[in-house]
Write the structure tokens for this entry.
Amino acid sequence: MKINRREALRKTAAVVTVGSAVGNPVNVQARGMVPKEKLCPHDVLTEASSFYDVSRGNPKPYSLKGQQLIAAGLTQDSWRLEIKSDPFIEEGIVKEPASIAQQFTKADHSAFKFENLIELGSKHGVKFIKAMQCLNIPQPLGQGLWEGVPLSVVLRECGVMKNIRRVYFRGFHNNDPKQIFQSSVSYTQAMETPPGELPVFVAYRLNGMPISLTRGGPVRMIVPWAHGFKSIKWLQEIFLTNDYRINDTYALNNNDPESHLKTSAYLDKGATEFKTGNPIVITGQAINGYSGLDRVEYWLRKLMPGAKRLEDNSPEVKNAPWRKCELADEPKWPDVLPEATDTRTILGFDKDTGQANSWPLRYGMISFYTILEDLKPGRYEIRARTVDENGFPQPEPRNIQKSGKNEISTRRFTVI
Ligand SMILES: Nc1nc2c(c(=O)[nH]1)N[C@H]1C(S)=C(S)[C@@H](COP(=O)(O)O)O[C@H]1N2
Ligand SMILES: [Mo]
């Protein structure tokens, strides 16, 4: 893929001199030249096939081939999107059923086609760079430039709507109800975007190309602020209901269905043994979540024989001498974006100047690193944590792990 080849060239050409970080005594001693790709080993945009995959289904939709794929509506030509209102009512709970002036169904051939979506996109299209992260898996899954049509624009095609409080979406699944994977947003979240905020959108491009089948193509929902389970892959059905209760599939497993991406740092895995005398490079990625990211910090401790395991909320961890990690520089966008992408057209970038509104990007991820020098032989444990823009160190302020895995990331290694 073009962007990755260019990115690779850029990375191998660049070297970074380390050694001046204030308040970072471990790094002050670093004298070596460490290639930038070692410090920041992650691409800014993840190639579609390199995302970590989280998919239900047996067989998984992307394993279908040929005629089965067409029958499943998973090619651009065969793809259809149904939009229906839900007749649901319940005595004493939901008094009136939802209704919309125009339903879009397969039965009467009115369902949306791929070309209808592209047409809406030519007038109202949006682009956004988003980190995908599973609520139940610490490490981010990847980051993409997603492109599509705001859900509000699609729903306006339904004309007058009544008694709608939640908007649900489902992907392709076989007929076993256990395989249904659905998520939802509130009516307001679907229809309105506050200033500076981001719309939910129906996406049909990833990193400048059609969304691959493995990444949920031809069409996938993208909920910018949310964990992956809201971003339904193989989207084929939207239903509008007056049932205000959040019946996302993920809620059934004790997950918080309204979680936003948490600000948190995740250490990369790596060697467990280093030779004394060589600088040790520790890397990771941080998510710039709901509360924003102020900084990433690390704490290194020597593990004495019999050292006890430390809980995230123990005084030892809270009062430890945490030090700042280095954050990856903002990239030169033309080097990492698909050819000829105008940053002025990407949400989160200034419409006039094309500058990013923030670095790291909102709901994006950023590489961080530190370099450890002159460690004496022994066992060590390193932790990394974020501090958000309200001054809360990870895992605060929201430490309930079922609203997103943000326990403090820890790695052990030996210096010999
Ligand atoms: N239709 C459908 N959409 C889905 C899923 C699924 O199993 N089926 N998994 C969800 C979950 S839990 C996550 S974390 C993300 C993962 O996205 P990825 O596989 O592109 O990394 O997709 C979401 N969308
Ligand atoms: Mo997930």
In short: Residues 202 and 221 are 5 Å apart (CA to CA). The pocket of MTE (ligand 1) is lined by residues 51-56, 132, 134, 141, 171, 181, 215-216, 228-229, 231-234 (CB under 6 Å). Residues 1-29 have pLDDT under 50 and may be disordered. The chain has nine helices and 23 strands.
